[in-house]
């Protein structure tokens, strides 16, 4: 008996494929693998040689809601005793059909009713056929995408087809009433036990609109499952169309991959779960898979079935808590979701957590993505052109040279705040970036052509995007995520985002993204209470809720959640060629009591406040990233004194940590009135006490220019400070940032000194870049970053203790700090020192205090502060100087080389000194 869940048809028929065995017997064939030979009873005893098989249409009537929605489950393909086989003696004639007994009807009569057919649907262009359940390829457990092509065996098929009135349905072959009610309510726990092919040898549908007559097939000695096709004719259709029954297909998700998913280490989970266009036995369709361990049943709903949960209930893989289903005949662009019936009796529709595309907010449906490259051949996938960049990145990672490369990061928002202006500005310093808050949104592809020239002009080496994973609320800036596997849909498709990354790589610009594994939003249609019970989050709200942020916390104890998070990071790096991940809110992951009151958190098993499972997840994440993607850079936004964040052996294993202490201390110092700065001088030098403990990013990020904190320009002074002085102080701030060990990060708008703080619903005020002082500020930032990129002393030894020495750190009366940056260890030398940059140069709208860029300054005899030589400098107020030392004499050079070799470091050229001043 085979039942199908077609819901939008007027009339449904069936045609089947049969083939003869070596004994001349005709057999019904099907791709379902778990079946019992109908000629044997469960004990293996021979019962009969031939059986008459009929295919009859049926309808499910509307039923009242049942008080007890639970249903007994049986193994896939098992036979329900209430659905008994239609059997008779060997001598009995079959039931009469249209006046002709089935025993008298011949194969030739049946074949004349309909032309022979079989499953030969061509694989869609670009997609690799998926093997049937009987022949699973011997693939790597972590590489689901590598599917071998399985040739379909040639079959000699004949079609058997006849019509049978509706009122001839034998009662012994009907679906039990209780199961019919559950199917009709989309609450059946085991639909494959009822639908599809079974030993009753009758063909049913659950189509509410089916009417009049249907087909039947007959064969002696039939084997099940049946390889059949449905003929569906709608009210407006003159002839029926061929439809493949969803429940005639076997399992398409291999068990060994589900075992890996359940173990918590399935990095390729994006190929396993979610929706994927594949082919099974030559039939094109979409495979769906989702993890929902606590619910009664799950159905795939979408536009193609009217969002009717009765149409496509899924198979539950009980031991894994997963549900899967292959639906033939649908393709990319279809919107869908999962209709879930929970144990508490409620029904609701949820998104696909593994979806690779979503509708544009506020709509929430998942979309079958045409950009999914997992099962496409090489020609049909997105064509990357960044091979040179990727090879260079890999080489830097394998040779451990990545940390010696310059890394000037531009933090950027890709959301509603990026809009193309209607007017054309020809006088702007950077008109290509001109955008306003009232015009159409700039997408990924449009932004690629606008962003690259600006980054190149400003000498940035990398761009970091705020979270791009799909999120419903733009006011969260992407930090309250729902779809960790999909780029933000408002700006374009996944392939559009790939184009943006590819364009940046071709311009030799790296791409970082913010990745958020710490928490997720609590929208009812999202991940929270996914199957009616805590699933992705901790069950206890003291662990599973972050009240201050109004978000849910991922359950790091569950291996399936760990696979989900690890797989998401892996997905962005593999599918989108991302060069680095900045992990958000690491402190909230490390500490169970982070920003929580007493009584609102639970200690770990040792009574401490460390989240041991989150720690192990971060360690595994960094290990996987560095193992699988050499040259990818990981960063932690961690604001506490946790030790070993960048320790790869016993710590968390990050490549760098955001130095939020330096940012807060420096900005706090700049906000002090001039007369009080001498009392705050230690804020500029305190970093020297901990600087050698980690590797650093020096951020001037979005967090400091929002929520009433004001802009960077506001922080460069106090009430009543003239605008010109603020610009000078901002130039000094950037000079101080570039000079200190660490990778500089500047948020968008900071390069022009935007006057107001950033608003997520407005664009940067690029028109301010037309002002003369701000133009000069842009030039200063560009020259400063250019110096940083070209001088190894400023970046190659950022993580080494010998790369930095204070020469004057206690001059609080004059508000001056001075330090040496050299590569490798060096000392000041006599001779001519070159002034590389002076923030007070005319080029940067300065007052030209002292000498200009490119000038030379001679040392004098008589050292200062223990150094053998002395430079007399005119340091401008609120100014910054960069100087390069002369080449040391040969004898001294040889001594430095020997010292460098003894310390295990290599010799480099020259040295530099750097001075900052905030004098009165």
TrEMBL record:
EC number(s) stated in the UniProt entry for this protein: 2.4.1.18
Stretch list, region Disordered: 1-140, 886-920
Basic and acidic residues bias (residue ranges): 890-904
Any one GO molecular-function label of the UniProt entry: 1,4-alpha-glucan branching enzyme activity
EC category: transferase
Pathway: Glycan biosynthesis; glycogen biosynthesis
Keyword Transmembrane helix recorded: no
Cellular component terms (Gene Ontology): cytosol
Listed SUPFAM superfamilies: (Trans)glycosidases, Glycosyl hydrolase domain
Entry's Gene Ontology BP terms: glycogen biosynthetic process
Positions with biased composition (Polar residues): 25-39
CDD domains: AmyAc_Glg_BE, E_set_GBE_prok_N
InterPro entries (alphabetical): A-amylase/branching_C, GH, GH13_cat_dom, GlgB, GlgB_N_E_set_prok, Glyco_hydro_13_N, Glyco_hydro_b, Ig-like_fold
Domain Glycosyl hydrolase family 13 catalytic, residue spans: 441-795
Catalytic activity: Transfers a segment of a (1->4)-alpha-D-glucan chain to a primary hydroxy group in a similar glucan chain
UniProt KW keywords: Carbohydrate metabolism, Glycogen biosynthesis, Glycogen metabolism, Transferase
Gene3D superfamilies for this protein: Glycosidases, Golgi alpha-mannosidase II, Immunoglobulins
Regions crossing the membrane: none
Superkingdom assignment: Eukaryota
Family note: Belongs to the glycosyl hydrolase 13 family. GlgB subfamily.
Name of protein: 1,4-alpha-glucan branching enzyme
């Amino acid at each position: 008996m085979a039942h199908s869940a077609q819901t939008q048809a007027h009339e449904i028929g069936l045609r089947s494929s049969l083939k003869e065995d070596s004994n001349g017997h005709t057999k019904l064939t099907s791709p379902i693998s778990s079946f019992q030979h109908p000629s044997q009873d469960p004990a293996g005893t021979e019962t009969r040689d031939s059986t008459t098989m009929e295919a009859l249409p049926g309808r499910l009537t509307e039923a009242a809601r049942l008080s007890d929605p639970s249903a007994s489950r049986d193994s896939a393909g098992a036979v329900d005793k209430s659905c008994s086989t239609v059997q008779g003696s060997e001598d009995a004639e079959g039931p009469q059909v249209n006046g002709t007994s089935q025993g008298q009807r011949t194969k030739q009569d049946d074949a004349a009713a309909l032309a022979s057919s079989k499953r030969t649907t061509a694989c869609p262009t670009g997609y690799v056929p998926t093997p049937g359940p009987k022949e699973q390829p011997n693939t790597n457990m972590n590489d689901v995408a590598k599917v071998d092509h399985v040739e379909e065996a040639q079959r000699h098929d004949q079609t058997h087809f006849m019509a049978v009135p509706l009122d001839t349905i034998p009662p012994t072959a009907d679906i039990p009433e209780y199961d019919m009610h559950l199917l009709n309510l989309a609450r059946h726990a085991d639909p494959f036990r009822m639908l599809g092919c079974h030993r009753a040898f009758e063909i049913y549908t659950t189509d509410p609109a089916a009417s009049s007559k249907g087909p039947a097939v007959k064969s002696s000695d039939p084997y099940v499952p049946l390889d059949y096709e449905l003929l569906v004719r709608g009210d407006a259709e003159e002839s029926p169309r061929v439809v493949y029954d969803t429940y005639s297909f076997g399992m398409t998700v291999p068990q060994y991959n589900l075992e890996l998913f359940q173990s918590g280490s399935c990095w390729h989970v994006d190929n396993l779960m979610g929706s994927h266009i594949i082919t099974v036995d030559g039939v094109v369709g979409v495979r769906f898979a989702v993890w929902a361990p606590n619910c009664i049943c799950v159905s795939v709903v979408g536009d193609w079935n009217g969002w009717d949960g009765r149409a496509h209930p899924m198979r539950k893989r009980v031991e894994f808590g997963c549900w899967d289903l292959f639906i033939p005949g649908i393709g990319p662009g279809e919107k869908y979701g999962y209709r879930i019936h929970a144990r508490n009796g409620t029904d609701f529709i949820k998104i696909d957590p593994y979806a690779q595309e979503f509708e544009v907010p506020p709509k929430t449906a998942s979309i079958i993505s045409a950009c999914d490259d997992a099962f496409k051949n090489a020609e049909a996938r997105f064509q990357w052109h960044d091979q040179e960049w990727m090879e260079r990145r890999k080489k830097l990672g394998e040779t451990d040279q990545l940390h010696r490369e310059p890394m000037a990061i531009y933090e950027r928002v890709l959301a509603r705040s990026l809009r193309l202006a209607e007017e054309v500005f020809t006088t702007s310093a950077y008109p290509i970036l001109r955008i306003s808050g009232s015009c159409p949104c700039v997408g990924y592809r449009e932004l690629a052509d606008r962003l690259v020239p600006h980054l190149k002009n400003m000498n940035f080496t990398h761009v970091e995007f705020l979270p791009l994973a799909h999120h419903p609320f733009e006011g969260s800036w992407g930090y309250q995520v729902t779809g960790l596997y999909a780029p933000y849909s408002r700006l374009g498709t996944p392939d559009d985002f790939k184009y943006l990354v590819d364009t940046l790589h071709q311009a030799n610009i790296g791409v970082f993204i913010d990745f958020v594994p710490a928490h997720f939003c609590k929208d009812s249609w999202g991940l929270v209470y996914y199957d009616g019970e805590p699933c992705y989050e901790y069950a206890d709200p003291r662990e599973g809720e972050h009240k201050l942020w109004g978000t849910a916390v991922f359950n790091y104890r569950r291996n399936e959640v760990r696979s989900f998070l690890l797989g998401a990071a892996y997905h962005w790096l593999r599918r989108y060629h991302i060069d680095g991940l900045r992990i958000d809110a690491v402190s909230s992951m490390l500490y169970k009591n982070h920003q929580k009151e007493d009584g609102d958190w639970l200690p770990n098993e040792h009574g401490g406040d460390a989240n041991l499972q989150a720690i192990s997840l971060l360690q595994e994440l960094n290990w996987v990233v560095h193992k699988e993607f050499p040259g990818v850079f990981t960063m932690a936004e961690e604001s506490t004194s946790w030790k070993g964040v960048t320790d790869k052996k016993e710590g968390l294993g990050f490549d760098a940590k955001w130095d939020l202490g330096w940012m807060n201390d420096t900005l706090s110092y700049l906000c002090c009135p001039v007369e009080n700065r001498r009392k705050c001088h230690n804020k500029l030098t305190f970093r020297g006490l901990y600087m050698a403990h980690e590797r650093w990013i020096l951020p001037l990020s979005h967090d400091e220019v929002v929520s009433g904190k004001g802009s960077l320009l506001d922080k460069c002074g106090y009430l009543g400070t003239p605008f010109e002085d603020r610009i000078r102080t901002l130039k000094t701030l950037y000079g101080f940032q570039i000079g200190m060990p660490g990778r500089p990060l500047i948020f968008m708008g900071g390069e022009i000194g935007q006057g107001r703080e950033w608003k997520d619903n407005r664009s940067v005020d690029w028109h301010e870049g037309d002002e003369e002082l701000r133009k000069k500020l842009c030039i200063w930032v560009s020259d400063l970053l250019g110096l940083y990129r070209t001088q190894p002393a400023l970046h190659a030894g950022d993580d080494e203790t010998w790369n930095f020495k204070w020469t004057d750190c206690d001059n609080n009366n004059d508000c001056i700090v001075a330090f040496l940056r050299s590569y490798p260890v060096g000392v000041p030398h006599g001779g001519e020192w070159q002034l590389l940059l002076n923030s007070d140069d005319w080029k940067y709208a300065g007052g030209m205090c002292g000498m200009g860029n490119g000038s030379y300054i001679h040392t004098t005899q008589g050292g200062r502060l223990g150094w053998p030589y002395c430079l007399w400098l005119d340091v401008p107020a609120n100014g910054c100087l960069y100087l390069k030392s002369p080449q040391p004499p040969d004898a001294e050079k040889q001594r430095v080389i020997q010292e460098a070799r003894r310390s295990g470091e290599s010799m480099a050229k020259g040295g530099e000194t750097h001075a900052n001043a905030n004098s009165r």
